[in-house]
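Provenance and format

Records in this collection were gathered into a single text stream. Each protein contributes a sequence line and a token line. The two records reproduced below are adjacent in the stream.
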Amino acid sequence: MKVWAEVKFNFVYFDKVPDIDWDKEIRETIPRALDTKTIEEFYQELQKVVAKLRDGHTFIMQPFAEMQALERPPLEFQMIEEKIIITRVGNSEEILKYKITPGLEIIEVNGVPAKDYLNDNILSYYLGNTKHWGITYGLYKLLEGKKDTKVTIKVSDFAGKINSVILTRNSELKDGSIFKYSYFDWEPLIIKQVYEKDILYLKLSTFIFNQIVDEFYSILDKIDFSKIKGMILDIRSNTGGNSANSYQIISHLIDKPIEAEKWKTRKYLPAFRSWGKPEEWFKVNSEPIKPSKKKRFLGPLVILTGNATASAAEDFVVPLKYAKRATLIGNTTAGTTGNPINIVLPGGYFFSVCTKISTYPNEEEFVGIGIPPDIEVKLTRDAFIDKKDIVLEKAIKVLKNEIK
């Protein structure tokens, strides 16, 4: 009943799922859960009912030891033109043997149409706030299973030729290193490049670690502003962390205070419930983000966003977009942020429930929608075949025009 109670009194997005009667859902889940044979099957039933809440920060997670026992072949996928496309590969013996390259389409997994496999085995247990975020996260887990077990996939090339290959769920590469999946590749925290001699590109991998603020300032402090005229911040694979870190980075990009998100949380008053009064909300106007007293970059700024830009990374985007400080280029963000309460369940499982609604400063919503780019660059299969980063190319072109 802990799952029922924590959602009943803490979950903030019931208005997003008006067709859900939580009490009824739990009543119907109890007999199915009790009829299971293993603790894993028991929690799968609970995961299914929690997934109906359609929230990226509300989910049941396996024990840490079980998660560590799971692996995937060294492949990444994205949904492009309604097809599951391989977008990145690691040089393992199997990948090289089967000549698996970016641009191939996954059409089957273990004999099941790939989209059906995704829906039945992953999205049934975690949907997320938006369809595109659910798919993005789901594709990361598409071939997941116990380490060193086999998975059979069918791939189709651009000409429609189909091959069946058997891959091992192991991310070790030919040279003994481990394939790092983009969403969890946090070393280094910041990747730096200079394009066209006057555009600084920084990939911000995650906002989890406080160290990223120090590293950002260290890079900024060494910049010769007489040479660097524009900046690109790439957060396409940044799935969040701590919004306080993202706000500190913003402070080095502004010349005046800008508004941060508004947020609210439920204020449960038992007496009010007994009197039949509606529940109240505790509302907060966040403190404005103030300019840093240290070195700042105030030139043209572009932020690259994508479907995996989530949580604290979206908290980073909101103030800059609202203040019109940056141009967003790429694709719509995940549309999932919030502050979850975390509960330990029997058997070592973890349960997170979203307790906070965040909005733009004017109370416009982006959770469940995503933050749209100012300039959309639709991903194409051709771009991955040709190994082109068309989003980055567009950003450089936009900045060059602005700098002129």
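Adjacent record:
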Amino acid sequence: WVLASANILEGVNVTSTPGIKDDLINAKAIWYNKEAVRDGHIISARRPPDLIYYLPLLIQALAE
């Protein structure tokens, strides 16, 4: 995950596929098992079927 490698996830709420959950937690992110999560300008989703939950968050962020 690029954001974890960039060390910018400390204290940021995120979700992801469970396969990289530990990587995100080790990057000090706050991981949730949810379809999509928005924390400021960072929007994350677990997997392609969850895009229906991701897209409204993206549209909301773009409108701000």
